[in-house]
Design a protein that fits this description.
alpha/beta, Rossmann fold, 3-stranded parallel β-sheet, 17 helices, elongated
């Protein structure tokens, strides 16, 4: 097949649409036209002009299409030049005649879709009197893991700050957050005791000085609130898993003690420490992400997400890959650790401190993990902030660059 048209509304564009585009792309030798139709029967979420921009961005960063192009370099055109995105407000038959393309791609998710598609096909053929026999409809079946995705479901989830990572590409998520809530996010992460919270707070202050609303969401605070909720009678399944894993000795007056879990975890060999930390990460993760989304309710502006485990929790999608990784040197790392413990009244000797630092992902490995996650995401930018100056003299330039990316969309 030389050329084909894939007509769709894409309001918003989803991974389901991308799945069909990927399949159609492999069938077309010359060109695939992604045609965004103005649907007058539906209330628009994004304008058709905005949809065109978002679809082009999503296709350009979609990893499977990039990989397919790398594997088939003999193609006449690069992958992203072989796909053309356009919009029009007429009948599909008008576009068919204008482009002289009679192969039409349609996506099928379930059997019921085919009944509706046959009715559409009948209408298209009636509009192409005397040449309808040239019309070739190619029905492509969605991959099984994409069959539950639809634009309407994505919109419904988005209205409640739900997890869209399985539904829409990162740039669509960003546009939805901006349109519905006027929100944008930046992840502040790094290894243990690098001063992430201080950097997040300073960035918030720098944004506030420019009269930009900004917030810091500390994930350590969220974890503490989960412990409180668990001991207040909520999250019974999480409580049960913790008691099964750590035993009743972590109870204090029938309440799960975070302090006792910490003491028990770090009073064992390094390999076992990491196993327990991994258990906590895995089981707390869904509760943390739900609580984080509640922090977003009723607010607009920029959110600095202070989360040391952001990459481990696969959270980079939340900020569309905009990440600040805070690093320092070994001496400062230990000084931050001591100062933090003094501030919260925690007693800890140097041997305990060293064990906790070694149990955490080293700074260089943290950076490598983030880069790997960003590559898989297909978008974003990693900033490394060396937190070695008590006056934060380099932070203003970082704040300026982040502001430019967020508000002038230089990405």
């Amino acid at each position: 097949m030389q050329r084909a048209i894939f007509p769709l509304t894409a309001d918003p564009f989803t991974y389901g649409h991308l799945n069909i585009i990927e399949k159609a792309f492999r069938l077309c030798d010359k060109e695939l036209i992604v045609a965004l139709l103005q649907n007058t029967n539906k209330k628009q979420f994004f304008s058709v002009q905005k949809r065109k921009q978002l679809v082009e961005e999503a296709i350009a960063s979609y990893s499977p299409l990039k990989r397919f192009w790398q594997e088939t370099k003999s193609l006449a055109k690069p992958a992203l030049k072989k796909i053309r995105v356009l919009y029009f407000d007429g009948l599909l038959s008008d576009l068919i005649l204008r482009e002289d393309i009679f192969s039409i791609i349609r996506g099928i998710r379930k059997n019921e879709d085919l009944i509706y598609e046959k009715l559409l096909e009948k209408g298209w053929r009636e509009q192409l009197t005397n040449i309808d026999e040239k019309l070739n409809i190619i029905y492509l079946i969605s991959d099984e893991n994409k069959r539950g995705i639809s634009s309407s479901i994505a919109r419904s989830i988005a209205q409640h700050h739900g997890d869209l990572s399985s539904y829409v590409p990162p740039n669509i998520k960003q546009a939805i957050d901006k349109k519905l809530f006027n929100q944008q996010k930046i992840i502040i992460t790094g290894s243990i005791a690098t001063g992430k919270t201080s950097v997040a707070q300073k960035l918030k202050e720098l944004f506030n000085r420019k009269e930009r609303e900004a917030y810091v969401v500390r994930f350590d605070d969220i974890v503490n609130e989960i412990y409180k909720s668990m001991n207040a009678g909520y999250f019974g399944m999480l409580r049960e898993k913790i008691l099964q894993h750590f035993g009743p000795q972590v109870l204090d007056a029938n309440e799960i003690s975070k302090k006792k879990i910490s003491k028990q975890t770090f009073n064992q060999p390094l390999a076992d420490i990491r196993k327990d930390l991994l258990f906590l990460e895995k089981n707390f993760s869904p509760y943390i992400l739900k609580a984080y989304r509640r922090e977003l309710l009723g607010k607009s502006g920029t959110f600095f997400l202070d989360a040391s485990q952001a990459a481990e929790y696969n959270m980079l999608y939340e900020s569309v890959g905009l990440v600040v990784c805070v690093e320092n040197n070994e001496e400062l790392q230990r000084q931050y650790f001591r100062n933090r413990n003094i501030a919260i009244g925690k007693e800890m000797n140097d041997a305990e401190m060293e064990k906790r630092i070694k149990a955490a992902l080293p700074q260089q490995e943290k950076r490598i993990l983030i880069e790997k996650k960003l590559k898989a995401l297909g978008c974003g930018k990693l900033f490394i902030y060396k937190n070695v100056d008590a006056n934060y003299s380099l932070l203003q330039s970082l704040a300026d660059e982040l502001e430019q990316i967020l508000f002038n969309k230089v990405r």
